[in-house]
Specification:
Blueprint lengths: L33 E4 L1 H6 L5 H4 L6 E4 L12 E3 L2 E2 L4 E3 L2 E2 L11 E8 L3 H4 L6 E7 L7 E9 L3 E13 L2 E14 L2 E17 L5 E14 L5 E4 L8 E2 L17 E16 L4 E17 L4 E2 L1 H9 L6 E3 L10 E20 L2 E23 L11 E2 L10 H4 L1 E3 L16 E18 L4 E19 L10 E21 L2 E12 L25 E14 L4 E13 L2 E3 L6 E3 L4 E15 L2 E14 L9 E2 L6 E11 L7 E10 L2 E2 L7 E2 L2 E12 L3 E8 L7 E5 L2 E4 L4 E9 L1
Length: 724
């Protein structure tokens, strides 16, 4: 007789692994807040991107960028601090600037707070680690098709084939096309493929080779400009004054084409019960062709809002006299992380030591273009505020040519430079030891040392007077310690206190910023790094025979010499500002009753920032809400019968947030109601219907200082799944 022993539930993530050698403990026994978006939740919500998955995690805010480089793609903030360089896949950094699809995701882990010890430089607010699907020794075939609102079509395939007892091959594929409900002229077409092969499954030596490629063609959406109209206490998006939410103020030829490929080789070898070795190697190639319209509400726009004559208003497509220039970007990267885990005893003390080295290199080059017949004094045509027309652009605007002197903005300390090259090279070593003083009490401490080298070179148009090429090299040594006290009074509870630190050198954002450094008035770069310190106390529980997991944590995160992005040049600036976020986070996940699952989170923050250059912390940090909460629950009725069905739904709520550190512009709260209903036909077929933003509320997902992008309106997606 076949017997199955169930030891938990997929919605209780306390015993989920972190899937990398540097973090050998599961979520429950890791002394830091870790939010997991599990596989089953991804399925129920029909999650299609990394951005959608992270809506289940409190403290995550999506942000677009601006300026010459046009930061967009996946740009997130964790606990209010930028994480554009802190996205990882299976523990290795993903340097690409693109919108990541979830077609090859198994789960998503968010490690909150400074994590330089594990991930290296950066990770001020935390790190996002995607765990991908890998081959198994059981044959498996899955085909999934979704279709619905706004011409949405999406198909995925997942084939896992056993070759022999220890070898298997897996292939995931994707094709998708969609418009956006509630936004005119905005669309996205993408395809992807992710083959992988694993050797030595179930043996002491396992090798996994993975390739991931994604191609994306989309229209950049910079949304609604933010303005303070008569009678308003704060600046708000113009859609809050009654301008139609669907209005898109871009140009016909705006586009964002990305090609991103990563090749990964992961090795794990178990020498014996005491020693385990990991080595993870990745090459990445990324390219991007970008052209966008950065919108602004000028004098005519403000007058139209104040008078109520919206038809007389115009939206400009350039800012501060500079044209948002199109560009082409090519990047490549290399990373290798080797780690050794040792479990041993010294007398009555039990140790778990993890040590190793991390080496990464990333190179980026950009070429700015301009439009034929357009200069700094000859602006891009405006758009009518009430009835924008993306096609009222002269033919000369459609033709891109090499940047000319009269079309390039003069960036202080750099000059008029259409081209740039940059690299970052990091070598690091890490060591930590967890020592069990008793069966229920342990201390954990360690450090990471890094040597960060980078160079940014701006060149071109050297024939102009006083416009030489510029190069900004730097080398920074960083040291980040960490220490924790971990108590496990029972097998179902962990209590911990953690201190952790992180460092972000200048020039860190090699691929995700057009100008990763900005010189000062003397032509030199302020090389002081940004530093962060975390103090956190918390407890984790796995209750009712591991059916339900819960966490509570209190934290304080201090950041000095905060980095920010200049809104015109998109260059990185050392402001000297002090920032602090402190608060409480709660989570609950698992099975309440047979067939009834729940996932709920809540975050209460007190985020404060000082003015640039220091001073008293009195304002609220931009993009960070005081309160955030998520809830998702689903019930499976009559399982195993022909009349079975699953019904569920949830709420995502984010309190209103400020769009700048001066607290003069704000967007209202986000409230999003979603739902699902599904039915199984036998064991292998399933049909479902997902609804999103059922109240059709005007929410804002992508935020920046001068504008905010409305979230999609009410959307319905039908789904058919074949699973063998």
């Amino acid at each position: 007789m076949e017997r199955i022993h169930v030891i938990g539930h997929p919605f209780n993530t306390m015993h989920a692994g972190n899937d990398m050698g540097r973090m050998p403990q599961d979520v429950m026994h890791t002394p830091q807040t870790i939010d997991v978006v599990p596989r089953e939740l991804i399925k129920q919500q029909n999650v299609k991107s990394l951005d959608e998955a992270l809506r289940n995690v409190p403290g995550i805010t999506a942000s677009v960028g601006e300026g010459a480089g046009g930061l967009n793609g996946d740009q997130f903030l964790i606990r209010g601090f930028p994480a554009q360089n802190d996205i990882y896949e299976d523990g290795l950094r993903d340097f690409g600037v693109y919108s990541r699809d979830s077609f090859n995701y198994d789960s998503v882990n968010v490690i909150k707070g400074p994590s330089s010890q594990v991930f290296g430089n950066g990770t001020t607010g935390g790190a996002i680690n995607v765990v991908t699907k890998t081959p198994t020794v059981n044959d498996h075939y899955n085909v999934d098709f979704s279709g619905g609102s706004a011409n949405y079509f999406r198909g995925t395939v997942d084939v896992n084939k056993r070759i022999n007892d220890t070898t298997a091959f897996r292939l995931e594929g994707l094709g998708a096309s969609n418009d956006v409900v509630g936004r005119d002229h905005v669309w996205d077409h993408r395809w992807g493929i992710a083959p992988s092969i694993a050797f030595g499954l179930g043996t002491k030596t396992t090798v996994v080779l993975q390739v991931m490629h994604e191609t994306d063609d989309s229209v950049p959406d910079y949304g609604m400009p933010v303005i303070k109209a008569r009678g308003s206490a704060y600046g708000r998006p113009i859609s809050e004054y009654g301008v139609p939410r669907q209005n898109w103020y871009g140009k016909q030829q705006d586009h964002n084409h990305t090609d991103d490929t990563m090749e990964t080789l992961r090795l794990k070898h178990i020498f014996n019960d005491h020693l385990t070795f990991h080595n993870d190697l990745r090459f990445g190639e990324y390219s991007r062709d970008f052209e966008a319209s950065k919108v602004q509400c000028g004098t005519k726009c403000v007058n139209a809002l104040n008078s109520g004559n919206y038809g007389a208003g115009v939206i400009t497509r350039n800012t501060n006299g500079s044209v948002p220039l199109p560009y082409k970007q090519n990047s490549w990267s290399f990373q290798d992380v080797a780690s050794l885990q040792a479990d041993f005893n010294t007398g009555f003390l039990r140790h778990q030591v993890v040590t190793g080295f991390d080496m990464e290199y990333v190179h980026d080059s950009r070429q700015q273009d301009t439009y034929q017949g357009v200069s700094l004094t000859k602006a891009v045509p405006t758009a009518n505020m009430l009835n924008p027309d993306p096609y009222n652009v002269p033919d000369a605007m459609v033709r891109r040519v090499s940047a000319k002197a009269d079309s390039m903005p003069n960036i202080a300390g750099i000059g008029k430079k259409p081209n740039s090259r940059g690299y970052g090279f990091d070598t690091g070593i890490f060591l930590y030891d967890q020592i069990w003083l008793t069966k229920w009490a342990s201390i954990k401490g360690g450090f990471r040392w890094d040597r960060w080298q980078s160079n940014y070179r701006a060149y071109g148009l050297s024939e102009l007077p006083n416009n030489p090429d510029k190069s900004f090299p730097q080398t920074t040594n960083t040291f980040n310690p960490t220490a924790s006290l971990v108590l496990t009074p029972t097998k179902w509870q962990t209590v911990y206190f953690t201190y952790a630190s992180s460092t972000t050198p200048t020039g860190m954002y090699v691929t995700s910023g057009a100008v990763p450094v900005r010189p000062g008035s003397q032509g030199t770069v302020d090389t002081r790094p940004q530093r962060a310190r975390l103090y956190e106390v918390g407890s984790k529980f796995s209750l009712f025979h591991d059916r339900l997991g819960a966490t509570i944590s209190l934290f304080r995160l201090d950041k000095s010499n905060a980095l920010t992005t200049d809104p015109v040049s998109n260059s990185t600036i050392n402001t000297g500002a002090q920032q602090r976020n402190q608060g409480m986070e709660l989570s609950l996940g698992g099975m309440i009753l047979p067939g009834w699952n729940i996932t709920a989170t809540y975050a209460l923050y007190d985020p404060k920032t000082s003015s640039n250059g220091g001073g008293r912390m009195r304002n609220q940090i931009q993009y960070v809400p005081h309160n955030q909460a998520t809830l998702w629950s689903a019930y499976e009725a009559f399982p195993g019968t022909p009349w079975n069905f699953t019904i569920g739904g949830g709420l995502t709520w984010r309190q209103g947030v400020y769009l700048n550190n001066d607290n003069t512009a704000k967007v209202p709260a986000n409230v999003d109601f979603d739902s699902v209903i599904s039915h199984h036909f036998g064991r292998h077929w399933q049909v479902s219907l997902n609804g999103y933003n059922l109240a059709n509320r005007l929410n804002y997902n992508s935020l920046f200082t001068g504008y905010a992008t409305p979230a999609p309106g009410r959307t319905f997606l039908g789904r058919l799944t074949m699973d063998y």
